[in-house]
Write the structure tokens for this entry.
Amino acid sequence: MSPVWSKSSLFPERRARIDGFLNMGDGHEVFWEEYGHPNGIPVLYLHGGPGRPRPRAIPRLFDPERFRLILMDQRGTRRSRPLGEMRGNTTQALIGDIEALRVLRGIDSWHVFGGSWGSTLGLCYGIAHPDRLRSLTVWGVFLALAAEAEWVNFGARWMKPRECDALTRHVDAKTSQDLLERYRDLITDPDLAIHEPAIRIYTAHQSALADIRHYDPELDRDEESVAEILPQLEIELGYFCQGCFIPDRYILDQIGRLQGVPGTIIQGADDMICPCANATELARAWPDATLHIVPDAGHFVFEPGIAARVMATFDGIARSDSARANPPEQHTNRGASNETL
């Protein structure tokens, strides 16, 4: 049974407790911020894209009295500098940034949470550093498979013909790789008359496939102009044209490294950007993970069923961590029962 949720279930809006920049020494400065209790349970949130800023209400999913929430703008994104920069921007570099941030903030291990591209990065980070994970929670699973790109750009036409036809009609491309490279070239063209229609068509196609059923703009990012979307797509298409800098099926082939790491997989049943097949295949390969398929939900973390499951997952994590930190008293009287208050 799915937990009940409404917007009133969120914790109050608040400002970051501390923030700063992580100078990586290669021209990139990564912005980070923390919310919640300085001695709380550490959680790292990884945003999607690549290159897409997080929804503004992400901190409101976490109890500020129990959690220490750390967020970062990945290379080239939002407040990280330089904006939209692809030089030195790879999945491997992002994994290095995450580790550098963990060390900077004095955290031995943490819970990691991410959706869409954030799920990809979280899984890649966990594969590289499983000893630093207390748990991994992902939603809207993206595995960076060649088959996923083929589905989004061509196969999804069976479900969303108008938007998919518009996407392919705007460029002359026979394969997904060709299509991505053509859109990258159009979107990075300095001529507004060239990049503006390409951005409009590309983003309309993505929005249609996200199939968000219960969108609330108050919980998402502010409405963005073409100029603000442009650097996001430069990063996103830069990654997609390179297969996200990992071999095809890398995550599924290496998922055994997460043996013993507790996982939660949360998937909107109607998400067509990252369809359910991704989540179910990941769950089959990762026995330590629990899969939750959320009905009447698309590709947005604040769909009620997805947000409810996220909050329930982290409530369980908080209760489990508290129980480990405060074990029940052991009585010598065999007739007495132990109670956890």
Notes: The chain has one domain: 7-325. The first strand starts at residue 18 and ends at 23. Confidence is low (pLDDT under 50) at residues 328-341. Residues 31 and 73 are 5 Å apart (CA to CA).
